[in-house]
UniProtKB/TrEMBL annotation:
Transmembrane segments: none annotated. Residues 1-16 have a biased composition (Polar residues). Keywords: Acyltransferase, Transferase. Its EC number is 2.3.-.-. Residues 29-189 form the N-acetyltransferase domain. PROSITE patterns: GNAT (PS51186). This is GNAT family N-acetyltransferase. GO terms for molecular function: acyltransferase activity.
Length: 189
């Protein structure tokens, strides 16, 4: 079956564009960088967060391809934990000319709706802006961008806009509707 898919691209062009969310009150939420490049952990986060919203573009990657992504100099994965349990993540991809893309961002379904997402997005965006501090061979960040689509959660676009991201492109296309890939069928029923 064919569906209409809308993709929105958003950006920040200055660290002062970031409008941080207030950390969730009463929650034991910490955010840490996954400093050991691990294809297995990255794939776990990808399927756990994106399984119910049809993330599938990386599912066909080999272990070697996945490992190359996480070992790319300047690539970072920042993970939110709630009482020690992974709740979601932000993946940063360093690009040329001081550009950083937030390639993936989201929460595992059980952790959505608890104000963790705004906090994690704020933190991850700040880490995109200060990426050169951790990677000395990298030039200072001049632009942070991301894209979201009509398959993402209902609060995604509003969260990005509240954090100071501005729309710079919209694409509408017909796409084949895919089943949700997991993390396994029926996990979130």
């Amino acid at each position: 079956m064919s569906i209409t898919l809308t993709t929105w691209s958003l950006e920040q062009t200055s660290p002062s564009d970031l409008r941080p969310a207030t950390p969730p009150e009463g929650e034991d939420v910490t955010i840490r960088r996954a400093e050991v490049p691990s294809a297995e952990f990255s794939r776990f986060l990808y399927t756990a967060v994106g399984g119910d919203i049809r993330w599938s573009d990386r599912l066909s990657l080999t272990f070697k391809q996945w490992q190359e992504i996480v070992e790319k100099p300047g690539a970072e994965i920042w993970v939110a934990y709630d009482k020690g349990t992974p709740a979601g993540y932000v993946e940063l991809d360093p690009q040329d000319d001081g550009v950083v893309e937030i390639v993936y961002f989201g929460l595992i379904p059980a952790f959505r709706g608890r104000r963790i997402g705004g906090h994690l997005l704020s933190y991850g965006t700040a880490r995109a802006w200060d990426l050169a501090e951790r990677w000395p061979d990298r030039e200072e960040t001049k632009r942070v961008w991301l894209h979201t689509c009509s398959l993402d959660g209902p609060h995604a676009m509003a969260n990005y806009e509240r954090r100071g991201f501005r729309l710079f492109d919209t694409k509408v296309e017909e796409a084949e509707e895919a089943d949700t890939p997991g993390p396994w069928p029926g996990a979130h029923a």
